[in-house]
Amino acid sequence: MNLRLKFAAAAMAAAVAGAPALAAAPPAASGDAAPMPSLAPMVKRVSPAVVNIATRGTIKDSQSQRNPLLDDPFFRRFFDVPPDSRPREHPFQSLGSGVIVDAKNGYIITNHHVVENASEITITLYDDRTFSAKVIGSDEGADVAVLQAKQPNLVAMALGDSTKLEVGDYVVAIGNPFGLQHTVTAGIVSALGRTGINPDAGGYEDFIQTDASINPGNSGGALVNLRGELIGINSAILSRSGGNMGIGFAIPVNMVKGVMDQLIKYGEVKRGVLGVQLYNVTADIAKEFGLSETSGALVGGVAQGSAAERAGIKTGDIITTLNGANMRNSSELRNAIGMLHIGDKVEIGLLRDGKPRKVTAQIAERGETESAGAADINKGLEGTELADAPDGGVLVKSVQEGSSASQAGLHANDVIVGVGRTPVTNTKSFRDAAKGASVLVLKVRRGGDTLLIPIR
Question: 24: burial class by Cβ within 10 Å (0-12, 13-18, 19+)?
């Protein structure tokens, strides 16, 4: 072992033991050699809490793999498209990972995408016991699901505190990549607070980035610190080949805990809304407002009757803090608000005309009329303000110049009356129709004309 490897091994072993990293060990006699530094004791302790998850189910052909115009009856008749081109259901099988977090109640945490559309879920433990599990609740926005399987002699993993993580901390990933059960890899925290990893999903992102090897099948598995505490749920990789490239992502355990509590209590996450339309503070915006840094979130619109309006937030304000925590950009603020509960009171720090202010808002329930929630429906609608139309459909109140929706041809005062073949009567039905679609083909009423506008 060369000097560099000896130093790294000694540092990691000292971190596990809580001893100074450079403490010198006395020379050992040849017949009584000191044990080699190893993560094995910690891995043995926590591995029984990591499970293999096998799922079966049926799924419709992905909307993203089909031309969305095929779902519109006009185009189907015009081009004489045969009936068998409609979405078909086909069976699937998949493998993933999970973590037991409550041995008494049999609660297992995994990713939403691991169990999505599954009709049969099979759990395999470290000791090769196998049994079925049911879904207690699943949240697509945070990509977290809670399963339950009450069995004797389960082992739960202790939950850590992801807010205490620092870049450079050692971490270990445990899961079932490619079906290879209980594979253990090690690395460090490469970065914190990563967002925009999957912009088409429109979810809540605050990822831990790690270079611990993560591959397909690791999803839903554990990212643990050297104390053997769960600090993240492995969720995604950045890869051109489908395999590990040293860039993996995990959902922080503090976010997971908040989602898990709601899924267990309600079976779903009841997210509240502030009712603001948000934009990042660019260099131009910072210059215009006399700011020294491009941090915070610019309020581009306030929904009528929203929690933000009641708190006194105005268009043009720049939100800088939420409950004392600095908000670096609009994504960070959106994530923080999305993790709050309905009725929570929050202190918001903002700048107005260059002067700092503080207001208190009470997070409101997400209603059917959401003027400021267009980006939550689909990322391609960011910069668009929507509301229920008086005569049915969804009214486009405004479209930001230069936004994706504007470039696609959506105009203010358009009325959205359908998504593909699905009619739309209000913002709630619009949200339901648009769920999970990477491309929206909007049926829009403009004056006396009806148009089709694809939004990506």
Answer: exposed
Q: How confident is the model at residue 327 (pLDDT cuts 50, 70, 90)?
A: confident
Residues 6+ apart with CB under 8 A from 79: none
- The count of other CB atoms within 10 Å of the CB of residue 86 is 14
Q: Which of 47, 219, 235, 429 is catalytic?
A: 219
Measure the CA–CA gap between 65 and 63, rounded to whole angstroms. Answer: 5
- Is 71 in the active site? no
What radius of gyration, in Å, describes the C-alpha atoms of the chain?
25
**H helices then E strands: how many in the chain?**
11, 27
Distances (CA, A) of 24 to 21, 28, 172, 336: 9, 12, 26, 45
- 113 catalytic per annotation: yes
Report d(CA 101, CA 109) in Å as an integer. Answer: 7
pTM as predicted: 0.67
Domain 272-365: which CATH number of 2.30.42.10, 3.30.200.20, 1.20.120.450, 2.60.40.10: 2.30.42.10
Q: How many residues can be counted in the chain? A: 456
Residue 436 has phi, psi (to 5 degrees) of: 80, -5
Amino acid at 365: E
47, 72, 94, 113: the active-site residue: 113
219 belongs to the catalytic site: yes
Q: Residue 116: what residue type?
A: E
Percentage of the chain surpassing pLDDT 70?
80
**CATH class of the region 47-148:** mainly beta
At the topology level of CATH, where does 374-455 sit? Answer: Pdz3 Domain (2.30.42)
Residue 272 to residue 270: CA distance in whole angstroms: 7
DSSP labels for 381-427? GTTEEEEE-TTSSEEEEEE-TTSHHHHHT--TT-EEEEETTEE--SH
- What is d(CA 125, CA 129) in angstroms, rounded to the nearest whole number? 5
Average pLDDT, integer, range 106-115: 94
Q: How high is the pLDDT of residue 214?
A: 87
Superfamily of domain 162-266: Trypsin-like serine proteases (2.40.10.10)
Average of pLDDT values for 29-57? 85
CA distances from 106 to 138, 161, 373 (A): 16, 22, 36
